[in-house]
From TrEMBL:
Gene3D superfamilies: Ankyrin repeat-containing domain
Name this polypeptide is given: Uncharacterized protein
SUPFAM superfamilies named among the record's database cross-references: Ankyrin repeat (SSF48403)
Organism: Vitrella brassicaformis (strain CCMP3155)
UniProt cross-references to InterPro entries, sorted A to Z: Ankyrin_rpt-contain_sf (IPR036770)
Length: 451
């Protein structure tokens, strides 16, 4: 390249399609050395849309390996340092670079790279999150239409739920969720036909369909409204609504692991430090006043663990639990409020109202004729007319929230309980107004006030 430039080659390739200009080719190939050389020689950046994602018109078969993504991100950061306005100058054909990324990502880049790339654009002035093209498509609509799951999720985290449920100007029911369902349905139908070769069908099976399902689940996690898809539809609309309901069952099933991860994240500091402290306490020297020689502290069975647990309670992190819930349930919803409240109450009870982690994890017990582990039961259902209150654990509360959510959207199957299967769903039946806990000191029922 140096020899060509020294020999008079035009580094800007004036008059050529910007995609074929040296700077674009170097960027699309993630060639940091070539980009550096062109910048040193004063290459023109304006008018080249230099920091757009490489697409199929740039370099065929862009090698999206982790190393190439790191190099590409480094190039974009260098270009932004050179000229921060590059993040805000749209191509004449698109309203902005977020929209452009929605068109070109298509699952060909990692989620981590897309998040960092779009964060870089946003931090440097990109503001086209809600800008629409001449067809009424905003970046989220384009991500759905193009099958770009990671841009879709990033956008969902940066717009309000109204944007997630926004219909097209001339078709209010054509929401992102409806378009995503239509795309998944069309890909399923293409696999059933005979008009494509096996290589294309393989791409549909391994990339396009998984991407479409991921987008549907992301939209649902972000608060997309299934009720906007008619429950009495027939033909393709009915088929597409069923596809969405199936994916929502998957989203609801994921809440079990999310709940446990949220609780573990909040209690991890307390567990770690109390375990260390429980081992150190018996070794701590003390002087009882009569014997001048220090001697080890004396503890009864599990007494050191209990003291260490109480001290460790100062270290538990309730915000970590809320953050884990919010990471999964992106949009504001009744389900998210119920989940956050349930997990917050469990974490507080586990950290401050128990004698140790053994009590949190629970012991084995006979439940309905089967020996199972019964974790901390810190919830209660108010007894009727002075009757006995029924104790519950966080698993029962979470499953109740999932069952209610499934019922409200017509999801009739696929939600897996995951514990005490021999009891069916009977142990998770209660009204939310009845839910509370038993005050440890007064033994009185206290309502949690969750609707």
């Amino acid at each position: 390249m140096t020899a060509l430039i020294n020999g008079g080659a035009d580094i800007n390739a004036a008059g050529a399609d910007y995609r074929k200009r040296p700077i674009r080719v170097a960027i699309a190939a993630a060639n940091e050395r070539a980009v550096g050389l062109l910048l040193q020689r004063g290459v023109q950046l304006q008018g080249t849309v230099a920091i757009r994602l490489p697409g199929r018109f740039d370099v065929r078969g862009f090698p999206t390996t982790p190393q190439c993504e790191l190099q590409l991100l480094s190039i974009y950061q260098r270009l932004i340092r050179q000229d921060s306005t590059l993040a805000t100058i749209p191509d004449e054909d698109v309203p902005g670079l977020v929209y452009d990324a929605a068109d070109w990502e298509r699952g060909c880049f990692s989620q981590s790279f897309i998040n960092q790339y779009l964060d870089l654009l946003l931090a440097n002035g990109a503001d086209d999150l809600r800008t629409v093209d001449r067809h009424g498509f905003a970046p989220l609509d384009m991500a759905v239409a193009a099958g770009s799951p990671w841009v879709a999720e990033w956008v969902c985290r940066h717009v309000e739920s109204e944007e997630v449920n926004r219909g097209m100007p001339n078709s209010p029911i054509r929401t992102p969720l409806a378009m995503a369902a239509s795309r998944l349905d069309s890909r399923n139908r293409l696999l059933e036909g005979n008009g494509f070769g096996e290589d294309i069908k393989e791409d549909i099976r391994t990339r396009q369909i998984p991407n479409a399902k991921t987008i549907i689940r992301t939209l649902l996690r972000a608060g997309a409204d299934i009720s906007s898809m008619s429950a009495v539809a027939i033909g393709a609309p009915r088929r597409q609504r069923h596809l969405v309901q199936t994916e929502y069952a998957t989203v609801l099933n994921g809440l079990s692991n999310v709940t446990m991860s949220a609780i573990n994240a909040a209690l991890a500091p307390q567990r770690d430090h109390s375990m260390i402290l429980a081992r150190l306490l018996p070794l701590a020297p003390h002087n009882d006043g009569r014997d001048p020689a220090p001697s080890p502290l004396s503890f009864g069975p599990h007494e050191a663990e209990g003291i260490a647990w109480k001290i460790g309670a100062f270290l538990h992190e309730p915000p970590a639990a809320a953050a884990a819930i919010d990471e999964y349930l992106i949009g504001h919803s009744q389900l998210r409020r119920r989940m956050r409240t349930a997990v917050a109450h469990f974490v507080k009870s586990a950290a401050t109202r128990t004698s140790g982690n053994r009590e949190v994890v629970g012991d084995m017990a006979n439940v309905g004729g089967v020996m199972v582990r019964v974790p901390l039961q810190c919830f209660a259902v108010r007894g009727q007319q002075g009757g006995q209150h029924r104790l519950l654990g966080v698993r029962e509360v979470v499953h109740k929230a999932r069952l209610d959510e499934a019922a409200s959207h017509g999801v009739t199957g696929g939600v897996v309980k995951g514990f005490n299967e021999h009891l069916g769903d009977g142990d998770c039946v209660f009204e939310w107004q009845q839910r509370g806990y038993i005050h440890k000191a007064t033994r009185l029922f206290v309502a949690l006030g969750i609707e």
